[in-house]
Amino acid sequence: NVAVMNEEIIKSVESLAKALKEDSRILRLNQLEEELSSNPEVIELSKKKDTLEREYETILSYAKKDSLEAKSCEKALYEAKLALDSHPLVQEYNSLYVPVRDLYMEMDDILFGPFRSKTLSHEAK
Predict the structure, then answer these.
(1) Are 114 and 124 in contact (CB under 8 A)?
(2) What string of DSSP letters covers 70-106?
(3) Most buried residue, 77, 94, 100, 114, by most Cβ within 10 Å?
(4) CB distance 42 to 87 below 8 Å
């Protein structure tokens, strides 16, 4: 019976949604996202990295990648990214992000994989 099958699917999806809302990894990741977006140090490091990324792109629009100006900016950009990635909140976030992303990709493959020629979780690895 289609109605019974639809009801079972709805119950399964509701159960999955409840489990995800209560998953400690996802809860912590959400908490860290809030902390990252309100931490002045992380915000400043992120702005610096973003500014240097734009500056580097601009330099590459008129200079060669091996020019002194481009190399100097590239080094500064590398150091800015390293400083951001080395911040304890960012490190904790990144360590939790990968397994949660993998979980979501596996769920996506289970739910929608039969309708695609490629799976997400296998492409990411």
Answers:
(1) no
(2) HHHHHHHHHHHHHHHHHSHHHHHHHHHHHHHHHHHHH
(3) 77
(4) yes
Cβ neighbours of 80 (radius 10 Å):
19
The DSSP symbol for 1 reads: -
Per-residue pLDDT, 119: 66
Q: Is 2 left (phi over 0), alpha (psi -120 to 50) or beta?
A: alpha
pLDDT at 55: 98
pTM of the model: 0.74
Q: Which residues of the chain have pLDDT under 70?
A: 119-125
Which one-letter amino acid corresponds to residue 86?
A: S
Two tokens, residue 7: 């009801």
Q: 73: exposed, middle or buried (C-beta count within 10 Å: 0-12, 13-18, 19+)?
A: buried
Q: Which CATH number fits domain 23-124: 1.10.1200, 1.20.1500, 1.10.3470, 3.10.20?
A: 1.20.1500
Alpha-carbon gap, residue 9 to 71, rounded angstroms: 56
Handedness of CA 33, 37, 39, 45 (dihedral sign): positive
